[in-house]
Amino acid sequence: MRIDIITVLPELLQSPFEASILKRAIEANLVEVHFHNLRDYTTDNYKSVDDYQFGGGAGMVMLIEPIDKCITGLQAERNYDEIIYMTPDGERLNQSIANQVSLKENIIILCGHYKGVDQRVRDKFITREISIGDYVLSGGELGAAVLCDAVIRLIPGVLGNETSALTDSFQDNLLAPPIYTRPREYDGMKVPEVLFSGNFGAIEQWREEQAYKRTKERRPDLLE
Ligand code: ADE
């Protein structure tokens, strides 16, 4: 998979890709991530990426021209399956969207800033608009990092144990069950006996019951 991220603040985005699972995925060539600084696609001396809104109103709007240059340049090199715009008015990111995006070959992620991009950018290029939640961030970069993390860990081979993404919360619309490790007893708190039974059928059944119970208590909306 190849991900091209278009941003005015590449420095805000780099560190999540320089540690742990994302770093290993890149080093193993399971994913390529490229950052494009929108200012490199400007034509004026001020390297402007935004301007006042037509019609008046607070907040700047990102110009179509540098974005067009950047996206068109990328499209001349390869086909893109999806051009995603990070915006609070997009569809809310969930596991199902992450699963869908993880199956794509080449994607572009455009990070919004200020009030957002000129509507014509959305009309001309964007195939999917994604929000990471009902709150407004200063820009799309942190949202793009969240989306990339959720997507990249689903690419086959990225997680050591192939099954571990399948047992995450939200796969199957259930939250994950409780998990335990050493010691067997801590401060009088014991690990449930069934986990030592060696009976994998019973353990699986216990996990399913716990996952259902937790989902019912915390996120009944997932069961509807
Ligand atoms: N940009 C600003 N707020 C955002 C959000 N909630 N999700 C994605 N991109 C954003």
TrEMBL record:
<keyword id="KW-0819">tRNA processing</keyword>
<dbReference type="Pfam" id="PF01746">
    <property type="entry name" value="tRNA_m1G_MT"/>
</dbReference>
<dbReference type="GO" id="GO:0052906">
    <property type="term" value="F:tRNA (guanine(37)-N1)-methyltransferase activity"/>
</dbReference>
<dbReference type="InterPro" id="IPR002649">
    <property type="entry name" value="tRNA_m1G_MeTrfase_TrmD"/>
</dbReference>
<feature type="domain" description="tRNA methyltransferase TRMD/TRM10-type">
    <location>
        <begin position="1"/>
        <end position="224"/>
    </location>
</feature>
<keyword id="KW-0489">Methyltransferase</keyword>
<dbReference type="InterPro" id="IPR029026">
    <property type="entry name" value="tRNA_m1G_MTases_N"/>
</dbReference>
<dbReference type="GO" id="GO:0032259">
    <property type="term" value="P:methylation"/>
</dbReference>
<comment type="subunit">
    <text>Homodimer.</text>
</comment>
<comment type="similarity">
    <text>Belongs to the RNA methyltransferase TrmD family.</text>
</comment>
<feature type="binding site">
    <location>
        <begin position="132"/>
        <end position="137"/>
    </location>
    <ligand>
        <name>S-adenosyl-L-methionine</name>
    </ligand>
</feature>
<dbReference type="InterPro" id="IPR016009">
    <property type="entry name" value="tRNA_MeTrfase_TRMD/TRM10"/>
</dbReference>
<protein>
    <recommendedName>
        <fullName>tRNA (guanine-N(1)-)-methyltransferase</fullName>
        <ecNumber>2.1.1.228</ecNumber>
    </recommendedName>
</protein>
<keyword id="KW-0949">S-adenosyl-L-methionine</keyword>
<keyword id="KW-0808">Transferase</keyword>
<dbReference type="InterPro" id="IPR023148">
    <property type="entry name" value="tRNA_m1G_MeTrfase_C_sf"/>
</dbReference>
<dbReference type="InterPro" id="IPR029028">
    <property type="entry name" value="Alpha/beta_knot_MTases"/>
</dbReference>
<feature type="binding site">
    <location>
        <position position="112"/>
    </location>
    <ligand>
        <name>S-adenosyl-L-methionine</name>
    </ligand>
</feature>
<comment type="function">
    <text>Specifically methylates guanosine-37 in various tRNAs.</text>
</comment>
<keyword id="KW-0963">Cytoplasm</keyword>
